[in-house]
Every structure is written in structure tokens, then in C-alpha cells.
Amino acid sequence: MPQFTLFKRPSRLVFLDDDALFLQVLKVALPPDWRADLFMDSEACLAHLKANGIAWLQDEYKQQILLDKADDSAQGALNIIPGILDYWRQSPERYDLVHMATFDYAMPGLNGLDAFELLQDWPGRRVLLTGQADESIAVKAFNKGLIQQFIAKQSGNLRDSLLFQLPDLLEQPLPRHQVLWLQSLSRVQQQWLSEPSVVQELNEWIVQNDWVEYAVTHTPFGILGANTKGIVCWLQLEFESDLGELADLASKQGLDSKGLAKVRSGTSLVNTDLCLALDPARVLTTSSAFKLGSNSSQSEQNGHLPDNLLGALWPLGDSYNFSKERTYDTWKTLYPSKIIQ
Questions:
Q1: CATH superfamily placement of domain 10-173+335-340
Q2: 279, HSE (Cβ side, Cα atoms, 13 Å)
Q3: What is the pTM of this model?
């Protein structure tokens, strides 16, 4: 069963190959949104990824701290949105973490598989390029979990094969991130974010809104995301069965009768939790709601009463957007792909 990626952001890629011409051609052919370091020297590449592995651990620690603070109490849960915003502001280096490394198997001195084994706990995706004689070795390595994919170098156009097969692997959630954020969600939230129709529609929605990074939160339930220009928005998620409670809380906070009627009918959602998380003095407003996915398989498999998942979008405003120098667009310009010989 598919599962929605709970934590996502841009990252760098690494390629290791002793063929200088191939790396030059690949660098030019990379998709516009990819940023890669292309190495010819295995020692330099391994040193880079080992240092990157330490940065990974430091970054995961920051994520764990903000999730722990959100679990301290019911009020503490509302700290998750400010916590993510602080994490983004204080961690500009997060885009430099390598998500995937692709090594050529047949290299002088150290082959690609041995190079991967020297990386030990490095958490990124591993892809091996193989010749025809090496394919059985690659299959065994794949079955042992040492690599996530192998690509035959003898294919007609290796560059096209890479650019066709790697994007799917890049879109898969990293297990360590997925487990970390999954633990913060309730069982019902986890089930809905494994509903195939919800996963598909959320993925399409994120592409349409140009979100390059985001995180799913449990209380309030939703997705905090930013686009390439650093515009930050909140996608509020609500269960239809909770709309009465949502309206009652909004009534206590001063929402007018017209707005309350829209919330109770499910045509709009109100940003009560977002206001509590960011600024209790923030004025309550409503935003048009839309239905996400289908509840059919969840109801049948888990015995839940019929329900629907609704969403509504809230831009946070200029004071919460990234400064220009911290946007992904700026980062791409400052740190382009490069060949390291």
C-alpha cells in the first residue's frame, strides 16, 4: 500500500565514475531542478559522503528535538508549526544533504560496491552502474539491501536510462525520515495518509502548488510547505466528523454565524489551530474546503464510520516567508552541479 511522504525537501546527488566524458555529458543532461556533485576520484567522493553522513545525524537530531517538544503536552503540540519554521530558518545547510549516490561498479582500484560498503550507515539511496559481467553481483547486492537499484551500463543510452529510472527512486521517502515523522501521527492519520486516492491527490496538489519541501504535522493535522520562492503555506486537514467540534471552538473564538455555518456544512474550514500556533491575536478567517481522496477502502478494512478528509489552504504571510537568500531558487543558483576531479 502506498504511503504519503511525510517529510520532503530538495537535496544534492552524487555520481562517481572514472569516465570524465560521461560525467560531462551527464552534468549537461541533468534535469533543471537537480543539483549534483560528480566525482572522478573515489577517495574524495567517500570523504564527502562520510562528512555528509555526520551532517545527516545532526539534521535528524534537530528534527527529533522539535517533534519531542510537540509531544510534551496538548499545548506543546501546537509548537510543531513554529518549530518547523525555526528549523527551516536555522538550517540553510539542509539542501546540501545528499539524498542519492550513483557509483560505477567497474573502476580502477576500488569498485563501486566496495565503495558503498565503506559508507556503513550513510542513509541515502544507493544506485550501482554495472557492466554485463557484473549484473549477477548487482542482483545479490540488491537482494541483501546493499543497494536500492542497479542500472546496466550496456543499455543503449545510459544517460537516458539514468534520467528515466532515478526520478522514481528520488521520489520515494527516505525510511529514516518517514519513521521519525510517522511516530508523531495518530493511527487514523497514518491510515488516511496510506489511502491510495489521498496519496495520489496530495502528490498532485503539491506539484501543482510548486512545493519543494514540506512536513506533515499531527496537532494541528496538516502539511506545512514552502515553494521554490520561499512562500510558506499551511494545508489544513480536517475530518468531516470533526467539523462540529471545529465550529464550536471557532464560535468561542468569535467567528461570526455566517462563517460557522460554512464550517459546519464542510464548504469552508477555519484557521483556529493555526492562529493558536502562530499568534492567538491573529484574526480567525475561513477558507474554501475541498475533499481529498476516498474513504471507501479505509471504512471497509478498518471498520471506521464513514468519514471524509477535507483540506483548506492558508498562506502564512510575509513575516513567515523565507528571505530571498534562503529560498530554494537562490540555493540552486549559488550551488550548481559541478564535476570534481
A1: Response regulator (3.40.50.2300)
A2: 8
A3: 0.91
